[in-house]
Every structure is written in C-alpha cells, then in structure tokens.
Amino acid sequence: MTATVPLLAVDGGGTKCLAVFADTEGRMLASGRAGSCNYQGAGREPAALELTRAIQEAKRQLAVSAAVGNKPPESDVESASLAQKETANITEDGPLHVTCAVFGVAGLDTEHDRQVIEGMVREALARTEVTADRIFVENDGVAALLGATGGAPGILIIAGTGSIMFGINDQGKSARSGGWGHRIGDEGSGYWIGKQAINAVLRGFDGRGSHTALTGKLLRHLGLRTEEELFNWVYSAEYSVNKTAELARYVSEAEQEGDEIACLILETAADELFLGARSVMSKLGMATASFTVILQGGVLQNNPLVRNRLAAAFRSVSPLALIDEAKKEPIYGVIAQGLQLLRHGN
Fold it and tell me: For residues 319 and 80, what is the distance between their CA atoms, to the nearest angstrom?
C-alpha cells in the first residue's frame, strides 16, 4: 500500500531549494535542502538534479520520522496520530503519494520557461517516486509574496543582485513587472547599481561626467590602479554579476559621504523600482486600495536612501499602502498556496 501525505511544497529559489512535506494544517512533517533550482543560471540538468535532491532528502527525513514515531504535542494528539498512520508505510526508496504538490520555482517568466520547469518537476517527482493528484507550478516570487502577506493583497519588490516586482489584489489576481535579468533588465538592483557606478567612473575619466568619489572606492575594492584597468576588468574573465553587485555598497558609502553622482544613481534606482511597482498596481487596479508593500533584498534592506525614496513614492500615489518587511520565509507562501488548493480545489 502506497503511503500518502497531504502536501509537498517546494521553494525552488536561485540560491537554494527547500522541499517540505506538510499535513492538512500546514505543519511541516519533514524538509530537504539543495542548491539552486534556477535553470537559467545553473543550467537545466543541474537545476533538475537539485530539485530532485531536495525532494529526496525531505522524503528520507519523512521516512526516518515515521520509523522513529515522533510523539505529537499533547494539544494535538488526534490529528498528529492520524498523520502518523498516513506516513507509517513510508520508506526512503519506496513510492509516496501526495494529494497536492506545489512548486514555486525561480526563472519561470515566460511560457517557454514554464514548459522547461514543468518538465523538471515531472522528472524530479519520477526520480523520487512521488506521485500527486494535483501539481501546481508558479514563479518563486509569487510564493514569496503569499508567504509575506498570508494571501492578503500586496506588492512584493525584490531588489537584491537582481530585481522583480509581484502583486496580488483582493480578487486573487496576480501580476508581475521586471525580472528580465542582468543583460536587459534588473533595474534598481545591486547589479544595476554597480554597473551604473562603473559607467560613472568611466564617464568621469572621459570628461563626459563629473568627478566622483566612486573612482577611488571601486579601484581600491577591485585591486586596480587606473580607470583603464577598470575597463579591462569589465571585459575580463574576472567580471561577474555577483562581483558587480558587490559594488553597490560603495555607491551607498559614497552617497552617505555626500557624493552627488552616487546620490543620483541611488535615486534613479528607487525611481526604477517604483516604475515597476506602479505598473503592477495599474494592472491590478490597486492604486486606491489598501495593501501591504513588502521590501526584500539587500538593496532595500541595507540602503536607506533607496528604501525611503521608494516608500515616499508609494505614499504620494497610494496613501493606503503599508510599507513593511517580509517576516516569513517564501516556503510558507508555497504551503499556504497548497493548503488553499487542498481546501478549495482551485
């Protein structure tokens, strides 16, 4: 007899993948972690492998827990005892059935992405011998938003190495803006800010722009001597998205010291992020509604100018918006989405 668990929830992010088995109340029964599931960065096969590893580890922990027979809290003996009966037949290498499997996966931006990622999901489930009555796949940003707001109306703005905006209104309709990657987008992100800083240094060197304290700061950080060496670094094998994003901290440092160029870069970053958020508000008809704005990512959490300017922009056009920071991990959003599907079937 194949063992059954109500819910498999997976947060497949660009940094890590977290898979969780949960009961009908959203309580975590077991979890497994692995590396990046973003196929656009890691590659399709490596991403599929990490997804498989996370599910397999969660399944292994579930089997161990079932074998040990962990005792439930006294306040919830009946429901937990039922969960133990459901998981009693689970083995690490045997089949497992879930009523609902929900995946929030990074890199799901287009219909082509959906086809690739849904293929990865089917492959990972087959490899781990997990079957599901229903499978739901969505972008991990939607999961982060639902986890932060508990399913209530809100807009999530992520500005870390990259940037993207998601929104959900009181009818449950969702929309996104940005997230097109470092080559053609990610405005307002750490990478974008670092790239603007390099551009400002080279413009100053040419005489096309004003002198900026960013020159000395960037050269010292990268161990370079001249602007020409900075140019060579940009086109060398040493250059990377992450290393460029690290330069954002020196833009913030220069701004706090009164550098006008650095200040302009950060102000523009905030304005770009708000453009994306305002687009989401417009798509969802939220401008006059009450909702929460969730700010995530290193740029928004560590840079007061960007955060404060963005908050002021929201107050000017949407006075009922509440600016807040996410207090829950994205996996809770995936679980919440799964519970909704279990209870309502849509």
Answer: 45
**Which pLDDT belongs to residue 71?**
46
d(CA 307, CA 313): 10
Cβ count within 10 A of residue 151: 15
Domain residue spans of the chain: 3-150+329-344, 154-325
Please enumerate in sequence order all residues whose Cβ is within 8 A of that of 152, keeping only pairs 6 or more positions apart, or say none.
Answer: 291, 292
Given a cut of 70, whether residue 111 has pLDDT beyond it is yes
Judged against a pLDDT cut of 70, whether residue 177 lies above it is answered with yes
Q: Could you give the CA distance from residue 288 to residue 220 in angstroms, rounded to a whole number?
A: 47
Contact 29, 87 (CB under 8 A): yes
Residue 173 neighbours by CB under 8 Å, 6+ apart? 284
Asked if 18 and 33 count as a contact pair (C-beta separation under 8 A), the reply is: yes
At residue 328 the predicted structure's pLDDT band, cuts being 50, 70 and 90, is low
Q: Which superfamily, per CATH, for 3-150+329-344? A: ATPase, nucleotide binding domain (3.30.420.40)
H or E segment and range at residue 91: none
φ and ψ at residue 140, rounded to 5 degrees: -65, -20
* Residue pair 202/230 in contact by the 8 Å Cβ criterion: yes
Domain 154-325: homologous superfamily in CATH: ATPase, nucleotide binding domain (3.30.420.40)
Secondary element (H or E) of residue 103 = strand 96-105
Position 183 scores a pLDDT of 81
Any idea how long the chain is? 346
CA distances from 145 to 182, 204, 246 (A): 22, 40, 25
DSSP state of 72: P
CA gap 80, 67 in Å, rounded: 15
**More confident call, 16 vs 269:** 269
Q: What burial class does residue 283 get, using C-beta atoms within 10 Å of its C-beta: 0-12 exposed, 13-18 middle, 19+ buried?
A: middle
Instruction: Give the separation between CA 343 and CA 346, rounded to whole angstroms.
Output: 9
154-325 shares the fold of 3-150+329-344: yes
Nearest to 297 by CA among 162, 148, 181: 162
